[in-house]
Every structure is written in structure tokens, then in C-alpha cells.
Amino acid sequence: MLMNDWNEKLECLNKFLTVAFKVGVLVGGFAICAYSWIIGYFPSGVTIGDGLLFILLATVLSVLVALFSFSFTSLGLALWPLWKLVIKLLSKILILINRVTNKDLQINSLPKIRKARAEHYGIAFIGFLFAGFLALQDWRSLMVVLVLLFSSSVMWSSIQENEEEANKQLKADISTEQKEAILKRVKRGNSISLLAMVLMPLVIPGAPTMLVTGVMRAADVRVDSATVHIKAPYSIYAEESGPKGQPSNFGASFLKFENAQVLFKGIGSNTVLSLHLKDKDRVQIVVPNSSVHLLPN
After folding, report:
1. Could you tell me the pLDDT band of residue 1, with boundaries at 50, 70 and 90?
2. What is the DSSP letter of 291?
3. Over the stretch 235-260, which tens digit does the pLDDT of each residue have?
4. N- to C-terminal Cα distance for the chain?
5. Contact 48, 90 (CB under 8 A)
6. Counting beta carbons within 10 angstroms of the beta carbon of residue 61, is it exposed (0 to 12), middle (13 to 18) or buried (19 or more)?
7. pTM to 2 decimals?
8. Is the pLDDT score of 270 beyond 80?
9. Angstrom distance (rounded) from CA 70 to CA 20
10. Which of 26, 78, 192, 221 could covalently link to 216 via disulfide, CB atoms 3.0 to 4.6 Å apart?
């Protein structure tokens, strides 16, 4: 029994991570293209090596999406005592509505919440860090986070119930065709639930941006703060856009710009810079790699 229980846990985890990775690769490729669209620049002069780096970034992002989704779901499961209270409160509200309106609203239709397993609590801490960071970035996303945590817990509980119900039906004396129909129905339902669980955390305000920019920083494609030395004539273009450069130690043909953001570098033949203005606004310029030197702060 113990071995069978562990096999079921591993199989369910494998299904979740498989779906998360497949979706993550698609989301990863789309997210990188979306990042290029957001900054208003698509790399030119891309080599085969740059293309491989793009694939690597999409793969890394897919792993991060899988970790984010799984930790988020684990956090939802770890909060099962809170959801039990919510369900209990909803059931009392339905009972009160039935008494006042003489209606027969089905209390049994409320979702059932399963207890979290031991392995969920460890990964739930990572989900807590993700959720906490997003809530601190924008407090309005807190309600969205709570709703999605509850939804993840409900879906996971539903998957477990479907599996148990299917196992009971398969043990009954039924035909092979009926067993195949049961397996097909459960597989289809669970696949939809798993896909929803993977995608749901990505609708949290700020979550996609956090994941994409995090991967870009880790790959050194994006640098949030740097001092850049730009060579003429591009330094002249930069000053004409507003920022004022300072003398550079790289020579008279260079100008130094501090507190710059490097939005895109290392892929293709150009570097995308966001230069600081006095009124806290920024101006974006594109400079050939050979005409800029970057010194991260």
C-alpha cells in the first residue's frame, strides 16, 4: 500500500510537471517575443549561436513557469484549513438563503478541499515568496492571488477525487469498453485541470513580467543599472534625445551615461539602452555592440 501510494504521488507529480514544461516552452517562446515587443525592439543580425541562446532562454523560462505553478499550487493546498473555513461559511450562507427564500440550493455542490500532503509544505514556502513579492509590488493583486490559490486547491482536490472514483469504477465488473471510456474521461478532465493550474498563476498582475525579466537578468541579457560609455555618433544621438553625457575614460570619442538600464544585449548586433533623464523619465536608444561599453553598477 505504501509503495502504491508513493507511485501515485510520483505519477501525479510527473503529469503536472510534464504539462507545466510543455506549456512553459510555448509560454517561454511567446514571452521572449512579447518582451521584445514591449521594449519595442526585435534583435537583428542574429547568428545561429544567438538562436540557440533564444531556445535556452525559452527552456529556462519553461522550468521557471513549472516551478512557479507547482509552488503556487502547493501553497494553495497548504492553506487548506483556511479554505475549509471558507467552505463552511459558504454552506451556512446557503442554509440561511434556503430558509429565507424557501429555495433548495444544493450545499453538497460546494467544492471539497483535500488536506495537503507532507511534500507540499516544503515547496509551498517558495510559492509564499512568489505570492508575497507580487502582493507587495501591487496590493491590488492580493485578491487575485487568494482567489487563484483557492481555485488551485479546489482543482487539485477535484483531480484526486476523480482518480479515486475512477479506481473504484475500474474495480467493478464492467466491460473493457466501459473501462476505456472511464479512463478517457478522467484523463481528459485531469488534463484540463492541470493545464488550468499551470496557467492560472500567470494571470496574476505582474507575474509574467516578473518571470520574463527575471530570466533576462539571470541570462545577463538585461541589466537594471549600469554605467554605459557610448561612442560617437551614437553619443550625439543620445544627447540629442535629452540625456547629458560626461567625459569618458575610453577616449574623446566616447561619452559616459550613468544610471542606465540595459534592456537587451548579447543577442544580435545591437544593444538597447534606456537612459535616465532629470525628471525621472527615460529615453530608449539602440546602439551597435561595437560602439558601447557597459559597466554594471
Report:
1. very low
2. G
3. 888 888 888 888 888 888 999 998 88
4. 57
5. no
6. buried
7. 0.61
8. yes
9. 8
10. 221
